[in-house]
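Q: What changes when iron/sulfur cluster is included in the input?
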Amino acid sequence: MTEKNGRVFSGARPTGRQHLGNYLGAIQNYVALQENYESIYCIVDIHALTTVEATKDLKLNTREMALDWLAAGLDPKKSIIFVQSHVPEVMELHTILSMVTPLGKLTALPTFKEKVRQNPNNVNYGLVGYPVLMTADIVLYKATTVPVGVDQFPHIEFAREVVRSFNFRYSTDVLLEPQGKATKIPKVLGTDGEHKMSKSLNNHIELAATPEETEKRVMQMVTDPQRQRLSDPGDPDVCNVFTLHKIFSSTTEVEEINAACRKAEIGCVDCKRRFAKSLNNNLQTFRERRAKFDTRDGYVRDVLADGAKRAQAIAAETMAEVRAAIGLYEV
Ligand code: SF4
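A: The predicted holo structure follows.
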């Protein structure tokens, strides 16, 4: 452990190019945490297999996601960035932890029931064990801290219970109980102004889109639904464009739009054009870094390979302690 506040672990499925929702909901927090925590960020490709049956895009999605993370400011000198399947010890720990996890507890979890509802034709064994693999991800790297939204605290409590069961059964304290770090995760609405931004709903704005593509997407955004004509005063408080203006535009511009919208002195088309401009300005550095990393031969691969090496060193240590605690025969 370094002199930092502890060790953070967080993982995300390889969903390819990231969008504004991913950035505001997770990536910008990852970037901030790496300053004060020893940070480990993992692209959890094995988790993805529980619901993704067609894997032809998995490799590309993994690379694209890593590229976006790096372009957004995750620094391989400050964080360990790697792919879950590159450290196979997690599968071993998952199996071991599954022996101390009651099946009834797993099938009773609301998240399991929700997954069954979403994938009624693919209720596989991996889906049941998902929270155990998630626990293995965290404890394999002896993470002390997991950034989570308030609604995800039960996941951390579950992981803590599994750890306690293991430590109790084998009279040991080798596995650490992680703590959840309450993180404000904003709900970022998509261009439809109604649902959470998501690729599957095609209401997303990709970070890596060109300025022209970004503007096109922004122009499709739904605004205050009550505002029918230019002469109608609008209500910025119910407008998703305004919500995002507040994040990406200057305070002066936000104040000006707020007042002008309420007095019908600005039209939504003009307002969206201004938002697209602010967003593109904000994303310029990201895009430049992305292009640079993308064309630097083998850069992403090397970062992920180095991350896996560093993660594996921690994993090997933990597994040696776990095997010893259980009393497995060693040669
Ligand atoms: Fe939303 Fe801007 Fe239209 Fe007002 S002027 S409703 S803030 S898009």
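Observations recorded in class: The longest strand covers residues 7-12.
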